[in-house]
# Entry
Amino acid sequence: MNAVTQETLTDANLNTSSDCVAFVTDNQTFGVVQMVSEQYFEAPAIRDGSTKEVMEHIAHASSPRAVIVDLSDVSEPLTDVLTLSSALGDSTCLIAIGTVNDINLYRDMMEAGVSDYLVKPVTEKSLAMAFEHMHTPEPEQNQAKPERTQRVVVVGARGGVGSSAVAVTLAWLLAEEQQRRTALVDLDLEFGTVALSLDLEPTHGLREALENPSRLDSLFISSAIAKVNDRLSVLATEETMTGDVEFNPSAIEILFDTLARNNDSIIIDLPRAAVGFRHRVLKAATHVVLVTDLTLASLRDAIRILSMIDESAPNTPVTVVANRAGRKDDAMSKGDFQKTLGRKVDHVVAEDRRALKQAADSGKPLPVSAKSSKVVGTVREIAKKLSPGKGAPNKANGKTSGLTGWMKRGKKE
Ligand SMILES: Nc1ncnc2c1ncn2[C@@H]1O[C@H](COP(=O)(O)OP(=O)(O)OP(=O)(O)O)[C@@H](O)[C@H]1O
Ligand SMILES: [Mg+2]
# Structure
């Protein structure tokens, strides 16, 4: 593949406010993109480059209407497309160019958010059609858009307030009663309890995925995920306590985008101390559930976490859940708590030690092990609010094997 020559580069005149920005890797593509884009855009900017150059460009420029990226020399084109479509947002159309002529790749690219994928040699006709497609919305685009995969981040105000218990129960109810394909992700890589509470073998792909997102594709996800049943899958790990996980900054969005391709809901159990990536996780959320208890220490930390959420995701709806209510060590009433918190507590979940113990002993989620517990009733209200009008309760069907299963595996780790 010839690189675009210096002469054409000088002509390219990369305009940071251009409506159409293209980064290509050879002269033939350059010529076609230049000729066709000039018919559709005021001052298209065409230059030598690929994903890295697009990312650098959008860091300094307003969002163009169209971005064309040449992925011919990229080893994992799908990963690049996921990164780019997350970074560009919904208002920019992404057209990818590549050398691989494969229908499965084309489908994956379209699912990952490209408006079109053109195989080299790019012709004037194929690029014009890609522009036409982008300018003339399909009829269904004028109708209601299908619901975007919801990404619900569950975070606790303090350790032990019950955020993982709420996350697991919520995920189970969304999957079983709201009939949503749901992925439950435990981002507490060292001390997470999600796999344990569902009596699942922790999987070992999550850390690698967060360190090396270029491995993140559907195939990798399916090997790293544990299936609880047809609709609920879990991504949870038990890492050694080395503490020095080197996250790639874009891994969070790529992970969520990859999971979004096969799920209606993603529930993320976020440890509040995850300083390295909590901002990104909150930014990617469509909804945040803040779990607290009614103690003074939790009140202080709930205030701090609400302001952190406000900074990271100012427009994302937040549901505040006061869990374990009714214990002797509650410092204050819901009313007093709300007054100091400066906002409403949306749901109060009762303390129910017996039910939680039953769940822990059986390795089954609360809606299976203690279905009449008030805890389940309240979390069900949250699940219904998250998916109004969806599904009806059906018979929960726990496939997990209980504490005995975990013991049989030798209480390893
Ligand atoms: N409503 C409840 N009633 C009684 N016990 C509860 C309730 N919710 C959670 N618990 C119990 O509280 C303990 C902590 O719960 P959980 O692990 O979900 O908290 P967490 O906020 O995720 O903690 P961590 O900060 O360690 O991640 C567990 O023993 C759990 O069974
Ligand atoms: Mg937890």
